[in-house]
């Protein structure tokens, strides 16, 4: 059965859980992981979240991910194929639609990689936007309590808007130096 969408208040243990699991993932991926980042709502202090720790791993070649599907399975990560997201490899720890950890693997420095960091860092920098997003998440969790896919899809316009604003802001800063 699909787990209901429930947004919990920010929990400081999420950082500790991330750090513990990050060490395990680093051991498995060894030199294949260029960088590992804590992304998603659990990575932003004070932001409410579904209690799922999101990891983003940057690799030099997504085709190499096939080499460590089995090793990740041994530490509890199931590979979940998404044909609609060809630039990402996704692994879940825990039950379908009720996982505890999500592992997103991208080419390091790709647009997807950058966008995840841009969004996270923008929320960390702008408390007013963070509060707006927190409120939106609570409203959507209420509206789509039993439909996690619809909940996720409904957040996309806000996320896309924030990423665009952040990129424009960065471009304006760079232009002012010219």
UniProtKB/TrEMBL annotation:
It holds the Pfam family GrpB. Transmembrane segments: none annotated. Gene3D superfamilies: Beta Polymerase, domain 2. InterPro entries: GrpB/CoaE (IPR007344), NT_sf (IPR043519). It comes from the Bacteria. This is GrpB family protein. It comes from Paenibacillus oryzisoli. The lineage of its organism: Bacteria, Bacillati, Bacillota, Bacilli, Bacillales.
């Amino acid at each position: 059965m699909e787990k209901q969408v429930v947004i919990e208040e920010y929990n400081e243990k999420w950082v500790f859980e991330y750090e513990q699991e990050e060490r395990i993932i680093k051991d498995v991926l060894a030199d294949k992981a260029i960088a590992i980042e804590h992304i998603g709502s659990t990575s932003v202090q004070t932001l409410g979240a579904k209690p799922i720790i999101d990891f983003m791993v940057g690799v030099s070649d997504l085709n190499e991910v096939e080499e460590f599907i089995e090793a990740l399975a041994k530490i509890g990560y199931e590979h979940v194929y998404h044909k609609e997201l060809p630039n990402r490899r996704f692994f879940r720890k825990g039950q379908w639609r009720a996982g505890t950890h999500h592992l997103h693997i991208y080419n390091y420095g790709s647009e997807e990689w950058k966008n995840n960091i841009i969004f996270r860092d923008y929320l960390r920098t702008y408390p007013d936007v963070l509060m707006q997003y927190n409120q939106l998440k609570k409203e959507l969790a209420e509206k789509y309590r039993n439909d996690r896919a619809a909940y996720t899809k409904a957040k996309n316009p806000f996320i896309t808007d924030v990423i665009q604003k952040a990129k424009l802001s960065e471009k304006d800063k760079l232009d002012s130096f010219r």
